[in-house]
């Protein structure tokens, strides 16, 4: 998706697995003169591994990255990122918008973006997709009762939309500000009003009045009524209610087992020529949920899954050396626009001193994580900007693993072992408090688990006791939203577009529906983030990016860990299956089934 960043990185293990490849792949396939014979020749269903269930299948309220990967097959945006060039291209829209700077009138100092929706674009009932559908979608996000806080800041720049009087598919967006990501986020998802608002509740309000800062949503019960339905599980996981203009129809969700999508027989995108971004070649997509990597790898060896990403590093290295496996699958290792981190609850009295947070950062051995857990497939990071971005602040030094420095900082912050039990303590609100912390991670994510185990052992040397606990993925997400944690390990997945840091780092996002889950921010950081949003000059923009990285580095809201190399496995019966840095690292919709004779030749 354009913009939603979360998980959300999957797993590696510090334990290398020794798994015996069972006899010839299965009873349906066997060896022939030393060659492995695939049992899936001619099968145009793509089975993709997922570590856990997504949280929702509703793009405006979901926050897990694996939700996005599934949703993009069901729903569509005006724009897409070309998988190969990484440039914006038209998806629902004919092409990129015509952008103008407005110099006079109500929107002087702002900008306009003019779009046209493709003439072929229709909903499943045959009705055309028009500008009013897009306006409806933006109003959904503007409705503060809808759980869309993680995306609301990205479309806040939209003040009004005017539809062309002669063409209902043409419209112009007007903004009072010039936002660096205006084009990217103006090209967002489009929902069908008939499907998601059958009572027409949102039609009672104009976009312009909902964009007015003085608009009082509490005075309009219809907004709450709409939100109650839209936020419900009905529109997030039930067949017949989860629906969009994309090429695949949602056919079912068996919790903990699989999510199934089937290609629509009469999809409008088939009428468009020379638009690879609209490719939809597989007949069916099955997202197979398996949070045990040992079982998942075994299943792949039996051809039970066609695609897996985030394969544990030890498994990935072993599979590359497995001659039988590499006759059936291709293994890829592209750069990944993501990073892992340990988040601090900065409002917790044990963690509200930045010296304590820096001390814990000194207890993380990134070199050990890269060497042992990633098998060398990663690099350390020092902040929220990916090292491949041109405004990555190279002046900031990696925080070294140094137990003595950690002890020194803890002592400066008043944490010493006064009772001789090996755990540092401090009096807080008149009560002696020991530095005992809980570290949470999501179940099935071995890399995060083992990162916690390594931290636990290192922290002991500095007098900190850490309890490493696991939570099922959806529970883990809910705990972080509720700020029910002391330390948690997670990751952010990014896109090859400029970074708007509002969603994760602005104090306005420090609420249950926002992604500033650690409680970071002050007046200066907010001001810098606000300026980045509206600064179009690349040099000025770079200075601002450098400054916000310096502030985050100083305050230490996260322990920034590593940016892993992606580890992708794809069955070799598919052509057009090259990897990309654009998440999730492959484009299963573009896969084309290779003729059986060519599969045999490759083997």
3D architecture notes:
- The protein has 603 residues and is α+β, with helices and mostly antiparallel strands.
- It folds into three domains: 42-57 and 240-335 and 568-602, 3-Layer(aba) Sandwich (D-Maltodextrin-Binding Protein, domain 2), CATH 3.40.190.10; 74-231, Alpha-Beta Complex (Dipeptide-binding Protein, domain 1); 338-564, Dipeptide-binding Protein, Domain 3 (Dipeptide-binding Protein, domain 3, Roll), CATH 3.10.105.10.
- The chain has 19 helices and 26 strands.
- The chain has a five-stranded mixed β-sheet with strand order 20-19-21-15-22.
- Helix 11 (354-361) runs antiparallel to helix 13 (403-412) and helix 17 runs antiparallel to helix 18.
- The model is unreliable at 1-33 (pLDDT under 50).
Tally of distinct domains: 3
SS field, number of helical segments = 19
The total of beta strands comes to 26
List low-confidence stretches: 1-33
CATH superfamily of the largest domain: Dipeptide-binding Protein, Domain 3
CATH class of the largest domain: Alpha Beta
The level of helicity is: 25-40%
Strand fraction: 15-25%
Shape label? globular
Instruction: Classify the fold: give the CATH topology of the largest domain.
Output: Dipeptide-binding Protein, domain 3
The overall pLDDT, averaged over residues, is 91
Q: Per CATH, which architecture of the largest domain?
A: Roll
Main sheet overview: 5 strands, mixed
Distance between the termini: 35 Å
Trace the largest sheet across and list its strands: 20-19-21-15-22
Structural class based on helices, strands and sheet pairing: alpha+beta
Rg value: 25 Å
